[in-house]
Amino acid sequence: MADAMSASGRTTTPPPNGPGERALYNKAEYAGRKAVVCSPRRAAAVLVLVFLAVLAIALVAAFARPACLPSTGVVGPTTVAPPVATRPTTADGEPFPWDSLRLPPAVLPRRYELLLQPNLTTFAVVGRVKIQITVTQETSFIVLHSRNMTITKRELHTSDDSVNVSITRLLLYPERDQVYLSVNESLQLGQNYTLSFEFNYTLREALEGFYLSHYTAANGSKRYLATTQFEPNAARAAFPCFDEPQLKATFQLAMVRHESHTALFNTPRRSTADLDFYLGAGIKQDDFFETVRMSTYLVAFIVSDYAHISDTTDGNVLVSVWAPPHLVQQGQFAAQVAVSVLDFYTDYFGLPYQLPKLDLVAIPDFAAGAMENWGLCTFRLTSLLYEPSSGGSAIQQWVTRVVAHELAHQWFGNLVTMEWWNDLWLNEGFATLMEFIGAGHARPEYHMGQQFMLEATLTALALDSLRDSHPISVEVTDPDQIESIFDTISYSKGAAVLYMLMKELGQPVFKAGLNKYLRRHSLGSARTADLWAAVQEAAAEAETPPAGDGPPDVQAMMDSWTRQKSYPLISVVLSAGRLTVRQAPFTQLPAVGARQSDAPLWHVPLSCRLHRRAGLLAVRLNGTASVTVSAPRQSAWYYCNVNKTGVYRVTYPADNWAALQQLLLAGSSHLSVQDRAAIIDDAFSLNRADLLNASVPLRLSTSLSREAGLAPWAVSRRHLDWWLQLLYDQPTHAPLQHFVRRLIAPQYGQLGWSEQGSHVVRRLRALVLAWAVSVRLPEAVARARTLFSDWRNAGLPVPPDLRQLVYSTGVEYGDTGDWQFVWQRYLNATTPTEKNSLLRALGASTDPLILEHFLRISLAGELVRSQDFVLVVESTAANQAARLRLWRFVRLNWHKILDKFGGGTFMIDNIIQELVSRFSTQLELEEVRAFFDGKDLRSASRSLRQALESIQLNIRWRGSHQAAAAAWLEDWSRREAAGAAPPTARHWPN
Ligand SMILES: [Zn+2]
């Protein structure tokens, strides 16, 4: 699954451990299918004939229900439970005999036959599932999952249908979505049985399970579709199942639909039958081919009136993009990317894609950014559809990345699946790493290397230096804990530590290890340790061992990065021909009650570049606190963590910091674009952690006036914008803003407002112009306002890369009429990315009445889709004029927000990250604490603790470093006034 939060093609980057982009954005082999009574084709025919009569009756009943009511509970007799003293009880107060979140291991599912009929007029769903199970331990009960549905019939037979096993009780425990069935005779070890249910429920706009979504057609009519989102645990809301990732089985689907609709499943359609005779005119049933062995969370089906475009890979896989008919041409770009990346991955992983087709489907209402369902990936509209005339380079890149991410999961996650959710990071970290590698293959001009550092490594380092971070690999049991680990640590830090391992071993060895892992566990499940074992074998077999003293102990190295939170600060000192490297945990606030002797240690691969030394000096800390190696006696400077491949920060004695400043300011070719960005990022972060004077990052920032690389600009903006925000009510704000304007001016002049240049130049331009407007560079503000009025008054379209900036500036500096104009354009916009840009711009208003109105209509959810409320929160939280109003609005409407977004979406997390972590006074800290005290935040409680820590850091920075920053700025201002000429631009390559 890819996270939703950077789906909008933002041109800014997140502030240090504050709001912003999160990582963009799921046993034993059974005895084959011999026990299956019928062939798949015959089974489907039997299914149809036997259940048509049942369905017809059930449909009458189900379709007569009010469409808006979810149904729960169970129909049919239940017997009195025996007096077992366990805590869980059913809704009726009966003891529920199974007391574990995990299902008992006595029964394993092998094959599901599913028949569904969703009605897109009444929204009623009736269904039937037959689950073939194998008994692995003699047992007299079965526990499986089901949520929010009415089970109307249940049966248990031996697999040859010869014996009907009587189900004596059916109990429900809704808190854990569990169904308990007891039987009148023991199920025998090694025997196969068929467990059948008939059930019904109502489609709702729930964003999970089998749910309802809609779009507005070109003629203005409202069209419904029914779609699925099962990860992590919502397959159980669509049909009764054994809903744990390691309980893999095959799935066969028959979908009853109206002839005006198309049904899609993980596999291609095998046949279509007319059901007019039984169910009325225009009713069809599609039967799909049986899937390969897979997890329940990867099953998907969609019924819609969508159109599609298709292309074929070199490996003969049919790739189709599906979307509302009037938008489907906007899927061309994603289809091209998917074809290119699918062929690339087939080669990279050394294994073909397992299915004959891959559908990519744009879903109007979608909680995450995208979902990797095997063969049927689903996306937010803005993560899949790209229209060159309105979408900028950031949006194009985002679509490429999300497609590359979901396609990587087809191998990593789908073909080989984590045994349990505690290894989720491996799925998501790996897909995040591959998203950059795959996107880099499809579009080499993106220069994904520096963007990986920016958006994976640096984002992870910012969050993981908080006390309230967590190890990548964590024990998770309950659903809230599972939800809470779909976070930056799993995605970004996971990707960053895998990249560090890849760099340490070399890509050929890493790939060979992956290939072993994928082959060994193909169609099965695995643990993280299985990957390390495979990579270790590949390292041992490699003909050319990597540099240094042989391959590292992969398990020990990676355990040190995945099983403990945080990361080290590496101190490097060169003295008298000895290079001494020490490690200590880096946290921005001192760790509570930590003793030096208990400090965690990491296995650190370190590469250093020294003045006048050819090549790199490789140093390894193998879980020790320090190491000393011999080095040249004389070196004017030394720089470690070359290209920022290691997931840590580095610090030096004052004289080497000064030497690196000189190197940076002199434009030395010894520093790559990643190195330049990393030096700046480390300096700002060490300052925030109270370990470095504010003058160091400020002085390093002056290199921007000669800088043409995207990454140094992005990190500088991230940090300096944060400072500007902390100082908004302080006298230092104006001098800092002036300083930033002076830094920007040369590059601003160089880039201009054209649409020329490479992808990276266009991204840099979008960043520099947006920054120029936000620090009120007069000519930039004037130009953006002119472009806005030309658009509003003369209908001149704004260049795609500049749209967000121009719309926002028009609203910020405009009047009520300008806001209304943008609002109307928002309501009428049909292109998803354009709609997003307009919505974000609406939050830039400075008018209190407009802001209040905007927040109210956004939360109401009629004119602004619920999933897009997060964009409203992002844009108003970033707006100084709106922030306190938003905070008041959130407090006043907390129950409404919780009702709407509290059920396992990223929304509450995001409100807290976007809004709360920006506060910077004691009063605000106390207000936030008091408001949330005693409130159940479920999966967002860690986000709140992190936000509170961020406020403490903000307060400390204002108290401890503002004065030093002010003094340095005053001195700089004096020197500037004395006539220091602004340096020329384009000193650095990009
Ligand atoms: Zn993912």
Secondary structure elements and their pairing?
Elements: H1 40-63, E1 107-118, E2 124-135, E3 139-145, E4 150-158, E5 164-165, E6 167-173, E7 178-187, E8 192-202, E9 209-216, E10 222-229, E11 250-258, E12 262-265, E13 269-274, H2 276-279, E14 283-288, E15 301-304, E16 307-312, E17 318-323, H3 332-349, E18 357-363, E19 370-371, E20 376-380, H4 381-384, H5 393-409, E21 417-418, H6 424-442, H7 448-463, H8 479-484, H9 488-505, H10 507-520, E22 525-526, H11 528-541, H12 554-562, E23 568-575, E24 578-585, E25 603-610, E26 617-622, E27 626-630, E28 638-640, E29 649-651, H13 654-665, H14 673-688, H15 695-701, H16 710-726, H17 733-751, H18 759-774, H19 778-794, H20 803-813, H21 816-828, H22 832-842, H23 848-860, H24 869-877, H25 883-892, H26 894-901, H27 907-915, H28 922-932, H29 941-960, H30 962-977
Parallel strand pairs: 1-11, 17-18, 18-20, 21-22, 23-29
Antiparallel strand pairs: 1-2, 2-8, 3-7, 4-5, 4-8, 6-7, 9-10, 11-14, 12-15, 13-14, 16-17, 19-20, 23-24, 24-27, 25-26, 25-28
Helix pairs in contact: 3-5, 3-6, 5-6, 6-7, 6-9, 7-9, 7-14, 7-16, 9-10, 10-11, 14-15, 14-16, 16-17, 16-18, 17-18, 18-19, 19-20, 20-22, 21-22, 22-24, 23-24, 24-27, 27-29, 28-29
The protein binds zinc ion.
Zinc ion binds next to helix 5 and helix 6.
